[in-house]
Amino acid sequence: MRKLFMAGNWKMHMTESEALNFVKQVKPLVADVTDKDMLICPPFPVLSRMQDALKDSNVALGAQNMHFEEKGAFTGEVSGPMLKAVGCEYVIIGHSERRQYFGETNEIVNKKLKAALNHDLLPIVCVGESLEQRENNETMKVIEAQIRESFKDLITADFKGTGADLAINDWSQITIAYEPVWAIGTGKTASPEQAQEVHAFIRSLLPKEVAQKVRILYGGSVKPDNVKELMAKPDIDGGLVGGASLKPESFAGLCVFD
Ligand code: 13P
Asked: Is 182 known as a binding-site position?
């Protein structure tokens, strides 16, 4: 049985004081949540303060991106060891906004994924099709290529093999997020059925030993009022949430429902 996982991706929102205020307010609202894992991914400048603020809470800390190199002349970039040092457990990799605005390819995502695992960070690897691709009936083709290339060397060559290239234990560290680009920040959510179809497809691509254990999150206009029906689907194991994760009551509303 996979435990539900609610992750907030704050994107480029929240100054330090806003972030501290959020944590102060959200902590009591989610203090009793034990049936879900919870995570917030603030921008880099506030991570260190968040480490202190979230201490002794049931909300984990993650980053929104990382570089694949450990250190070096990469102006403006942040490495895995730096994220570990400020208390990050998780890192989002290959978000569609990184792909769309910053030229991240599946090859880069693959390097980042390997670097995250090497540095003991728990990667949340994002995939998702554009509106044009969905309308052209290319969704499954695009998703398969994203998974195949992003997980290159981590899934065996025949792609439905044993997963021997990545230790079976390592797969327990990986989360996948399906985020259809047309549903992100648009208020237009994939229907639970549409999301379930892609989630089941993604699961079918994973090594069979691990397929039932890997959590697959849905992202794209998840809100307190649609979270329950999405999470009711068998292959949807949580949410990666942007806008609705920015307000304490709203984040809590994603985490507290029955
Ligand atoms: P919204 O929840 O704002 O649509 O964003 C989804 C997302 O991109 C989370 O990573």
From this structure: no
